Amino acid sequence: MDSLPTKKSNKPFGWGKRHTFSILGFSGFAISYAIRFNISIAIVAMVNSTGLSNKPNVQVVPTIGHDSCPLPFPSTTVNGNHYDEGVTNKTMSPITLTTLREEGEFNWNEELQGYILGSFFWGYILTQLPGGILSYHFGSKWCFGLGIFIPGILALLTPISARLGPGWIMALRVGQGLGGGITVPSAHGLVAKWIPPNELGILSTAIYAGMPFGSGITMVVSGYLSHYFGWETVFYTTGLVVIIWFGLWSLLVHERPSSHPTICKDELLYIESGIGLHNNEGKFSTPWKEIWTSLPFWAILIGHASETWALYTLMIELPTYLKTVLHFDMTENSWISAFPYFITWIFSLFISFLGRFFIERKLTSVETIRKIANSIALWGSAASMIGVAFSGCDHIITVCLLTTALAALGGFYSGANCNHIDISPRFASILMGITNTAASSPGFAAPLVAGYFLKGNPSLDQWRKVFLLGAGIAFTGNLFYVIFGKGKVQKWNAALPKREQKN
């Protein structure tokens, strides 16, 4: 049975090694999400949407009547034809706003773009559970580091693979996913070793908040790089940053506090007295049966998968929606796409501080905080996506609702995302490997479903279906989490060491 050490330690003053780990973990996730989603912005510059009609300088626009937004520029003369301000795609057909701008070199339709955007997750989903097991048995530091380094090196080859053909870039993206799939489970393993329970909400959220922060930075930087220096520089820049980060990670981060050569005794005692003996260096047999029959575990899994469907619907498709429906140009697109992620980052930290305030003063339980935070994330996002579905062409309302939808998801990092450590700190990396496997499937499923709805007819009516589906999944998934989620360590966490089982 687990027990806490009798000797306790007060929180040491000043900067500690756990903070260095948190900063590098934060930046690592930011870079990981840059690798994952930089193509969502770059593809807007890569694709020649006018060329899809197979006619020079012409784009065939379906007849969609009122389900088309007006073009946001004053009266214009194009190829001898005069178009007034506010003209719609229908009345402007066969030429649209996109023909007034420089187009990309690839003739990829919406369905093929969906495959390319989602192909990362074909590989990503395969290495979640193996990543958790590898992290548990062989150490989390190198699993996390290599899970960022390998996809970053492959990013340098993206321009070459794209020009070789769609199959090549999809294969490269699958390879990036295979490498990147081990990052989240291994991060959970490190968090369970380095972050004491009373700092879990804040520091784990700070680490995972690198995801929305990295997404926001990527949207802005990728937009400007694509616009001014060519879309290829998006991937070259990402690869360079990865190399620098990996050097710092290799030098400054260690597997556990007790193996760090320069950690002070006060911080070591503070961490070890906080986490107790559940993370001692012995190996334990994984209680697979108990895990798979645990309703609190299933609540996390379903809540996690529902959150990622909402997230990937917004994250992957947002730049395309802003360009093809609301007609924002490349630089406007990048800033508006990025803004919600910065709000998500700030909101996630606010929720974590608020949760810690209530828990430290024993005003509520860990379980209640997890469920409130997760409900803000999923139900808040669902309500906003419903609003987007019916906001039409009102740019201000639509952008505000999209911002709210993504910002609300920041609550997830203080909800189901760290709930694995609450119910089983010993097997947290394995649990995250399992749930993130399920949560990765929306990464390729959401773009494919969106591509199916939008193929040949990216109208407001078809986009409405995309947003309503995402809202329905988010609402239902969180309802299951609220009913069955728990905040206490489960009995099966106290597994016997392997040597005791043999005896």
Task: Report on this structure.
With 503 residues, the protein is an all-alpha fold. It is 67% helix and 1% strand. The protein has a two-stranded antiparallel sheet. A hairpin with a 2-residue loop joins strand 1 and strand 2. Helix 1 runs parallel beside helix 10, helix 1 crosses helix 15 and helix 3 runs parallel beside helix 8. The longest helix is centred in the last third of the chain and has 31 residues. The chain starts with 16 loop residues before the first helix and ends with a helix.
Search tags:
503 residues; two-stranded antiparallel ribbon; 22 helices; 67% helix; 1% strand; disordered N terminus
Distance between the amino and carboxyl termini: 17 Å
- Cα-atom radius of gyration: 24 Å
> Helix content range of the residues, please?
55-70%
Quickly give the structural class: mainly alpha
Unreliable stretches (pLDDT < 50, length at least 5) are 1-6, 53-66, 73-101, 499-503
Q: Which sequence of strands runs across the widest sheet?
A: 1-2
Quaternary status: single chain
Shape summary: globular
The total count of strands amounts to: 2
- Characterize the main sheet: 2 strands, antiparallel
In terms of DSSP E residues, the strand content is under 5%
Can you give me a brief rundown of this structure?
With 503 residues, this protein is an all-alpha fold. It contains 22 helices and two strands. It has helices at residues 17-46, 89-92, 110-118, 120-124, 128-138, 140-155, 158-164, 166-180, 183-194, 197-208, 210-229, 232-252, 265-275, 288-292, 295-324, 330-360, 366-389, 395-408, 419-423, 428-454, 460-484, 498-502, and strands spanning 76-78, 81-83.
